[in-house]
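Subgroup meeting minutes
Present: P.N., E.W., G.H.
Scribe: E.W.

1. P.N. recapped why we're keeping a running log of single-chain structure predictions: easier to compare across weeks, and new members can see raw inputs and outputs side by side.
2. G.H. added today's entry (328 aa).
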Amino acid sequence: MSLIVDTFGRTVEYLRLSVTDRCDFRCVYCMSEDPCFLDREQVLSLEELAWIGQAFTELGVKKIRLTGGEPLVRSDCDQLVSLLGKLPGLQELSMTTNGSRLTKFADKMHQSGLNRLNISLDTLKPERFTELTRKGKLDRVIAGIDAAKAAGFKRIKVNAVILRGQNDDEVLDLIEFCRTRELDIAFIEEMPLGIIDERKQSRHCSSDEVKAIIEQRYPLMLSNKRTGGPARYYTMAGSAIHVGFISPHSNNFCHECNRVRVTVEGRLLLCLGNENSVDLKAIVRQYPGDISRLKQAIITAIKLKPKEHHFGGEDDTQILRFMNTTGG
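Output recorded in log:
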């Protein structure tokens, strides 16, 4: 039973733990073109990350997802996977990755105890892929997906951010790609983080619009599939895959939020769309080994978790941190 319950009665059982703010891509919806990365001393060590993971699992967290930036640019990430995978009570250890390094690391991660992979893929057109990621190569990501399947990962999900006028013409192509490779897919509305300009505001594409495109070819049936995250899943005839929609704009899911994030510099973010946070790094470094103090800080911090986020309105708070510093 989780001991982390906020003032609105929501139980926190899911931690997204960022291992780096660095990435080998520069995706347009995730970071600026010329990002300024953290210095090494500002970043949590593997041992500190594992210690925070232990505190959360002892408080009842059952699922940890490793995020970035791109987690696999931290080449010793498999050691963290091994440490976290041994934590009693942890039922699932997963990772969100851009897939570019999976040909090198898929086997190692699977053997170290990683259970699931989410792989970002927004387009199947090589030139467009390089444009959206600013420097990525599509063939490396597709090779990484195939390497992950060959390594034995049974639960692989593609994440696609659909942007109006940029890749909304590929929704059905992405569906066919996932049907062929037997991959689940989640379509994600763009998160309005970072510096918002007119170009960003005009490219929003809602989950309902994406769903309507898919149903031109494949009628969707609501599924009872639950992964502990915010996606609502559907199935379609002739395939075992699930199609999910994550809709922070059009279908607010705050009332059932069961997750928090810890950034790589140790900030406990209590809501993606608010700046409420607590500095866990300060506690870990000032009181090394005192897990009781760390757990009490987490329990106290959860009381600051807001009721909901507010995305999209003119009067709403603008979140200036980019997704790579937030933790995907």
